Amino acid sequence: MANDAALRSSLIWLAAVIVVVGISTRSFKKMMATYVVGGLGIAGVLLPDWCYFNRDFSRWTSPVTVDERASHTASTRSGSKRFKIYPIRMTVYTTVYGFALYKWWIFVSN
Predict the structure, then answer these.
(1) DSSP type of residue 100
(2) InterPro entries, alphabetically (predicted)?
(3) Cα separation of 86 and 6, whole Å?
(4) Is pTM, for the whole model, over 0.85?
(5) Fewer CB atoms inside 10 A, N or C side of the chain?
(6) Which DSSP symbol is given to 48?
(7) Structure letter (DSSP) for residue 58
(8) pLDDT surpasses 70 at 36
(9) Pair 72, 51: CB distance under 8 Å
(10) Distance between CA 64 and CA 24 in Å, rounded?
(11) What does each C-alpha distance from 30 to 35, 43, 80, 92, 93 come to in angstroms?
């Protein structure tokens, strides 16, 4: 990960949410569930190799070539966004994280 600032701020926000859940529910299990769901959420959004995933979906089964890696490095330095919006990625993220958030909410609210 090239920029650790996003990871640091995400972990700080996660810690704040864990403290709020702990104070409001007084449950260590719910705090740990928040930690696990938040950690997986952060890992799924911030840590993947976007050079690999920013390719066409059909190319995900093949390794990233040196030329693709160099092209990605050059494009991120030129100011383009690191996270591009792709319909398949957004559908998968919405489904997986929506379900995880729903399950977490049900667990914490009971």
Answers:
(1) H
(2) DTM1, Spc1/SPCS1
(3) 21
(4) no
(5) C
(6) S
(7) G
(8) yes
(9) yes
(10) 46
(11) 9, 20, 39, 26, 23
Cα-trace Rg, the chain: 17
CA nearest to 10, candidates 40, 33, 30: 40
The one-letter amino acid at 2: A
Buried (b) or exposed (e) across 36-64, using 16+ Cβ within 10 A?
ebbeebbeeebeeebbeebbeeeeeeeeb
Cα 30 to Cα 26: distance, rounded to the nearest angstrom? 8
For the record, the structure tokens of 7 come out as 């990871």
Structure tokens at 42: 């952060």
Residue 89 CA: distances (Å) to CA of 55, 65, 94, 103: 11, 21, 8, 21
Tell me the residue length of the chain. Answer: 110
Residue type, 19: V
Task: Report pLDDT digits (tens) over 77-96.
Answer: 655 555 567 788 788 888 98
Give the Cα separation of 27 and 3 in Å (integer). Answer: 34
Structure tokens at 21: 């859940």
- Token pair belonging to 33: 């569930």
